[in-house]
Design a protein that fits this description.
Blueprint: E1 2-8, H1 21-34, E2 38-45, H2 55-65, E3 71-74, H3 84-96, E4 101-103, E5 108-110, H4 115-145, E6 157-160, E7 165-168, H5 173-184, H6 190-199, H7 218-225, E8 233-236, E9 239-242, H8 251-263, E10 283-284, E11 291-299, E12 305-313, E13 325-326, H9 327-340, H10 347-392, H11 398-425, H12 430-441, H13 443-448, H14 452-463, E14 467-470, E15 473-476, H15 481-491, H16 497-501, H17 511-519
Parallel strand pairs: 1-2, 1-3, 3-4, 10-14
Antiparallel strand pairs: 4-5, 6-7, 8-9, 11-12, 12-13, 14-15
Length: 521
């Protein structure tokens, strides 16, 4: 009977205790010689077995099915597979007799043996891979929650192998800061920043030692200029975390760069598309039908051609008395609506600073709450233990015991779910808040610009489907948080919005504060 020798070693952490390929081959050859096994061919795989698709493994099984060999020699059963597809294939070929014998240094597997033992071993190997992947991801998320970025160091930082943290690169960090300063001036392009890096020795492949030596691409420069890691925050798994690493630039400089990026973004000039302000943005205030755009062309006798854009009610439901409005007049009105909700200068910076403060406080409160909940769970476990003792001593009836235990288990489950929510989402509400602040920060610039799609997008965020057109006037009731911002700003533009709309305890719902302000105004 012929055998195939199979050796596999992946680069994953799961295999760090497994012998190297050379050691496996040496041991397996000695085993084959000792057991007088005829080796027809050797297969060496350097790939993880967590997913199907290993080429050498598939080739080996194909040749076994062609009858070139009837047995396999391997270091352990988990070398053949760590996923249900490959495991099932090997098990089936063994049951059918296509594979008659699998030999490892520890034991032998034959066609006539019970499949239960092999199924258990394969299942343990598969579950080990799944648990390892889950535990690794959980560890990375926990590391991110501690403020340590679970990934390679950015340009301007170096990996510290001793502390497993990111330290400032004293040579490259000043160059990164200088690149931000250059771009913040508003006169440079991505290519200019790439050339600056190239002249200073920061080139492709220079960090990993893999060659390269070329100038950076525009996309890579943009990733650096938009990376919040440099002022202390970072994003991981869709969440923003406050890092414990040392920031190399200020948030103010970072914001200046983002403003320059926006100005130099060269957005396409909005065409005078008659449907630009339609598409569900406006409804007729009289009949509720949609508003549509229409271009009227007027030709003069002297040959001049004039095009005028009008917006009017579609009048699809019933007759409507509303007339049309010139596109320019409607744009002016919509810009005024946007400007009405634009906050004063410096508001966004103050609000973002308060958000950062609330994030720190929320984390501390969550930690305290988790400790209290875990103490409550320990108390519930103690009560459950005492209740069980009473039932064993027959000091309490079975129905009363079951009823009380059910209540305790319900309390325990509720506490566990609260802990889970606090661990996952203690500060999740702050990310939508930051996005809203940044949207509000851009309103004044959008209102003054001529980019109609940007205006439409902002209007939809503020008013939703509440914008109407009646008597050639655009009207709308803002939704959610925009209502408070617009009302306060419209009544008194010089009022301190932060002091007026934010409760002294932090960025929480401020209905009572606004009601107090309304009553005094």
């Amino acid at each position: 009977m012929n055998y195939f020798l199979y050796a596999r070693k992946s680069t994953d952490v799961e295999d760090k205790q497994v012998l190297s390929i050379e050691s496996q081959l040496s041991e397996l050859r000695s085993l084959a010689k000792r057991e007088s096994l005829e080796i027809a061919a050797e297969f060496v795989e350097k790939q993880s077995a967590k997913t199907p698709g290993r080429p050498h493994f598939n080739e080996m099984l194909t040749r076994i099915q062609r009858g070139e060999a009837q047995g396999i020699v391997c270091w352990k059963l988990d070398r053949l597979g760590r996923n249900p597809v490959d495991n099932g294939q090997v098990s089936w070929l063994l049951q059918e007799g296509t594979i008659q014998h699998i030999q490892t240094p520890e034991r032998s597997y034959y066609s006539k043996d019970s499949v239960l033992l092999m199924a258990v071993e394969f299942g343990m190997a598969t579950q080990y891979s799944r648990d390892l992947a889950y535990n690794t991801k959980r560890g990375l998320r926990e590391k991110a929650r501690r403020g340590e970025y679970p990934g390679p160091a950015r340009i301007g930082y170096i990996n510290n192998p001793r502390t497993k943290r990111h330290d400032v690169d004293r040579r490259k960090a000043p160059l990164v800061v200088r690149a931000f300063e250059i771009y913040a001036e508003g006169q440079s392009r991505f290519e200019d920043i790439a050339s600056f890096f190239y002249e200073k020795g920061i080139r492709t492949g220079s960090r990993s030692g893999s060659g390269g030596g070329k100038s950076w691409s525009k996309n890579r420069v943009k990733r650096v200029l938009t990376d919040t890691f440099y002022y202390g925050d970072f994003e991981y798994a869709g969440e923003i975390h406050k890092g414990t690493h040392s920031p190399i630039l200020s948030k103010q400089l970072f914001d200046r760069v983002q403003t320059a990026l926006l100005k130099r973004g060269h957005p396409q000039k909005a065409k005078k598309d008659p449907q630009a302000l339609c598409g569900g943005l406006l409804r007729c205030g009289e009949c509720g039908c949609s508003i549509t755009g229409e271009v009227i062309v007027k030709r003069q006798k002297n040959g001049n051609v004039h095009r005028y854009l009008y917006y009017r009610c579609t009048k699809k439901r019933r007759p409507c008395s509303q007339g049309a409005i010139r596109g320019e007049a409607l744009e002016i009105q919509l810009s005024a609506l946007l400007a009405r909700h634009a906050p004063s200068q410096g508001w966004a910076e103050q609000m973002l600073a308060l958000a950062d403060k609330d994030e720190q406080e929320a984390g501390k409160v969550a930690e305290r709450a988790i400790r209290e909940l875990r103490a409550a769970i320990a108390g519930i476990d103690e009560k459950t233990s005492r209740l069980t003792d009473l039932y064993v001593e027959q000091d309490i009836e079975r129905d009363a015991y079951l009823q009380r235990k059910r209540a305790l288990m319900s309390e325990r489950r509720s506490a566990e779910e609260q802990i889970g929510r606090l661990e996952r989402n203690a500060t999740a509400w702050l990310q939508p808040l930051r996005e809203w602040i940044r949207d509000a920060q851009m309103l004044d610039e959008i209102a003054k610009g001529d980019n109609i799609p940007s205006k439409k997008s902002s209007l939809q965020k503020i008013f939703g489907s509440n914008l109407t057109l009646q008597a050639r006037e655009a009207r709308g009731a803002a939704q959610n948080q925009w209502t408070s911002l617009g009302e306060v700003h419209w009544k008194n533009p010089n009022l301190d919005l932060v002091a007026t709309t934010v409760d002294p305890t932090g960025l929480e719902p401020v209905t009572s504060t606004l009601q107090m302000w309304r009553s005094t105004n």
